Write the structure tokens for this entry.
Amino acid sequence: MSKNTISRRQSLQLLGGAGAGLLSLSMPAIAQQNAGRVVVVGGGFGGATAAKYIKRLNPKVQVTLVEPLQRYYTCPFTNLHFGGLRTFEQQGHNFNELRAIGVQVIHALANDVDNKKKTVTLAGGRVLNYDKLVLSPGIDIRWGALKGYDQAAAQLAPHAWQAGPQTMLLKQQLDAMPDGGTFILVAPDNPFRCPPGPYERVSMVAHYFKTRKPKSKILVLDAKENFSKQGLFLDGWKKFYGEMIEWVPLSKDGKVVRVDAKAREVETEFGKKHKASVLNVVPPQKAGFIADRAGVTAQSGWVPVKAQTFESSQVADIYVAGDATVAAPMPKSGFCANAQGKVVAGAIVASLAGQQAPKASWANTCYSLIAPDYGISVAGVYEEQDGKIVEPKGSGGVSPREASAEFRKLEADYGVAWYNSIANDAWGTKA
Amino acid sequence: MSFRIKRLCSMSAAVLLLIGGAAHAQSALDVSVLAGSCANCHGTDGKSNGKIPTIAGRPAPTLAAMLKAYKGETPPPGTTIMNRLAKGYTDEQIDALAKYFSEKK
Ligand SMILES: Cc1cc2nc3c(=O)[nH]c(=O)nc-3n(C[C@H](O)[C@H](O)[C@H](O)COP(=O)(O)OP(=O)(O)OC[C@H]3O[C@@H](n4cnc5c(N)ncnc54)[C@H](O)[C@@H]3O)c2cc1C
């Protein structure tokens, strides 16, 4: 980054938000603005990837990443932490590589977006101007959408669906639980972050119980009739955990309608009450709040985008990646957020140069671990056709139902290799 | 207009080059987006530091042949995932991917 940029930024800090608009018109700044100015909100899978790939495609574009966390923890592989197979720290990543390639990283929360003035206001009042804005804020919990489940309830019955203190709380509760206890996981209806996530979590908690607390039970109360990689999970549960895990689908009164976090008790649609020793509620979700402020969220709570570019279909020059978007048939996965970040990067770099957006293409693979050395996966390839996201015929699918122990072991190992590669690709973390 | 030209000049030269046959020109940017989905398993630019093989800097015909084999009726023994993924790409896209990764050193 040139000295000019830094001194301009410093003077912006001195003047505060009000001067930003004026200053950005001043002469010395214009040279740097030619290649364009991009603000990225959120340094998770989608945002970190978009920031990095914009710089890789055109280092002259000014990229500012806004992310409150100094150290970001991925949700992927936190389930393995519950299984006792990884430390929590192994999921942590910093922003040093992004800084090294010239991305300005600001550790702050973005509070507001003015999509007409094209500004982002940070907590504390600082204002950033953008030519193109990328939002990859992930999910917010819909507090209260499930009766009784609010922020206070989450301190007693964690969701652990955003990695951080919630993950540590659930781990502490599992560690403190006596042998013979009951772990209840409440699974939400679609769409939600990481479709196989609840079932991998159950597998890893079962592994922990099997090795440390073998008299314990697991109950999954599900608002759905089916779930991702269902056959493979059910086979694996039986094989490794026998009768320990009971899964209750919607049609068998699996839908939880009320949570009493203090009593660690839940009530289902038809009035049945279940009491847990450890209660893990995966609640209904929506796009991160900054998407609402930017005017890109639809009534559904998620962000509709143009398939080819992932530009908002409601507001020009705002691109959205990751879990916040409506991108079906792509799932809400870190893999897809990364792939979408690259499509956004290509579209933005092309547009800033006055060129046509590149042809979009994405893929996905979600590896899940059922037991140590026993991995399964679901894969997909996606392309844009007539404004829709489609899967080429014959592509994608899940691991074979019949497979050798070697095959499952390979997929367990490839899962780890995937994690190391994507962490390196997004944050530059070396395994 | 002059702004636009400056912006074009400032893009990495590689990104602006056109590759592939004249009939179905895929821009280099198209191919880099296509290849983006491979990087999060095979490593950035196809340089892996783990158990998934490195695909950067290997001869294009070798890479293309392997990808077409994954796409076929009988993928090589030991294949876990590439058969499911390779079926999502046309032969033309496979050739472009093979060329792209072969040029990454
Ligand atoms: C238990 C579990 C297991 C999972 N396992 C896998 C897996 O194995 N493979 C896989 O592919 N996916 C997995 N996922 C899904 C994956 O975590 C998400 O799909 C992914 O994190 C989405 O990326 P994102 O960029 O949309 O959001 P995130 O990664 O959540 O990043 C959003 C970032 O934006 C920041 N932010 C939010 N609002 C603001 C704001 N206003 N201002 C500034 N910053 C803001 C947040 O601090 C956060 O760092 C799993 C999820 C869970 C819960």
In short: The first strand of chain B starts at residue 18 and ends at 19. Residues 70 and 82 of chain B are 6 Å apart (CA to CA). DSSP finds six helices and two strands in chain B. The helical segments of chain B are 2-10, 13-16, 28-42, 60-71, 82-86, 91-102.
